[in-house]
Specification:
alpha/beta; Rossmann fold
């Protein structure tokens, strides 16, 4: 009997994840007061129900009752239920942007500023985040990527450490990504831009990829980068970090950075972490008519 609680920051994607869980066969209920969790589990897992997988959304709208969440989940575990908690996180910048786009009001903001409501919620949810089984930072996750990770865990039984690694290719002429934790400059590598055959291509194309990786310096850089990142990841986890953005930049973010970002992603995707990749500036030249 599988019982999954989905909680976290308002605006981080709880409703989206509930829909994903429903798609893979979970019976889903949103915003049930924590005090009713055990009664709800008894009903769902009765012999007559035919239900063996439940996903329950719990958020800050539950007010003071939210503090009872882990008391109730511990009680379920003592009764033999398999209980896991997914905590959804996102940066302040991302949450503010989402609220402004949807024109929704934050449940804790009241007459205060949106930022104040987010800060209050973070403080209230600190203990819940620490005790969660999985922590997803959705700041840089596409819906498709998040669905893949949910499917890997709950359909394929894959286990992960609580760290989301985003590998981000970018162009220095468009600015260093503000959310970068680690930034690597690969402008020292030969530039495919100066080859007329490759100028309109990207690091996603075989010709560019083979050209960039044909140089010994590119292969050695990738080897050392992979070793360093694999060394750092468990140490970041020990310090409580759950989101790491590794940015790799070249001049335009189209050839060298994309090639190296893709290569690092291929090396890390089978490690025990959530790994996703973004090419921020890959289409910028086309947009600007270059």
């Amino acid at each position: 009997m599988q019982f999954t609680v989905i909680t976290g920051m308002s605006g981080a994607g709880k409703s989206t994840v509930l829909k994903m869980m429903e798609d893979i066969g979970f019976f889903c209920v949103d915003n049930l007061p924590p005090a009713l969790i055990n009664k709800f589990a008894d009903i769902c897992f009765s012999p007559e129900s035919g239900i063996n997988k439940v996903a329950l959304g719990i958020d800050i709208r539950g007010g003071d009752l939210f503090e009872e969440l882990f008391q109730e989940t511990d009680r379920l575990k003592s009764q033999g239920y398999e209980v896991e908690v997914i905590f959804l996180e996102a940066s302040d910048e991302t949450l503010i942007k989402r609220y402004k786009e949807t024109r929704r009001k934050h449940p804790l903001a009241g007459s205060d500023r949106l930022e104040d409501g987010i800060n209050k919620e973070r403080e209230i949810l600190k203990s819940a985040k620490k005790r969660s089984t999985y922590i997803f930072d959705t700041s840089n996750l596409l819906t498709r990527e998040l669905k893949e990770e949910i499917t890997h865990i709950f359909m394929e039984g894959k286990t992960y450490e609580n760290l989301t690694v985003t590998i981000l290719a970018f162009g220095f002429k468009y600015g260093i990504p503000s959310d970068s934790d680690l930034v690597f400059d690969v402008r020292f590598l030969p530039n495919p831009f100066y080859n007329a055959q490759m100028r309109a291509l990207t690091g996603n194309d075989e010709m560019v990829r083979d050209y960039v990786m044909s140089f010994a310096v590119a292969k050695e850089f990738l080897r050392q980068l992979e070793e360093m990142v694999i060394f750092l990841l468990p140490n970041y986890i020990k310090e409580g970090k759950n989101q790491l953005v590794i940015s790799i930049g070249c001049t335009g973010g189209k050839h060298r950075s994309v090639t190296l970002a893709n290569a690092l992603y291929e090396r890390l995707k089978d490690e025990n972490y959530f790994v996703n990749i973004h090419h921020r500036d890959i289409g910028n030249d086309a947009k600007r008519g270059h």
